[in-house]
Amino acid sequence: MKKSTVFPLIMFFLLLPITCYAGKYPAYLNGNANYPLIYGYMDIGTYLDKSSAIRISNNTEKISFAENCISYDIDTHDILGTYTVYFYQLHNRSDFNGAYVSHDRHTYTKFFLDDTHAYNMSTRNSFLMGWKLLFYNEWPTNPLPIKNPK
Description:
Layout: H1 3-22, E1 37-41, E2 44-58, E3 62-73, E4 78-90, E5 98-102, E6 109-112, H2 118-135
Antiparallel strand pairs: 1-2, 2-3, 3-4, 4-5, 5-6
């Protein structure tokens, strides 16, 4: 075979697994834009229910909000469950990259927004998507309270 024929074939087979994996998780649950994909891992997609996101507080101490998430098995097409996630972030410049998450609103665990390891991606992406949805902007560059839109 000619080199001009072999190279595209090699590239096709090398990129095939990446393409198939990326397309494995639908961007929206059942095509509904109200349920965007937060993160997919090991055949389980986690989706945000945008209509459930609420602000809890926004004061000089912290910003807090909550949202519902849906776990979906992409192989069986079953909803495995829904759960509420609570977040808050302190207005503290020395700890601005840290935020806190809870599934019961009593026990909070710190996580870092710059940590892109697989174990943190669902929490991180959920926080960032909720933030953008509720405060109408990307993650801010300063720790000042966000004013409510009018």
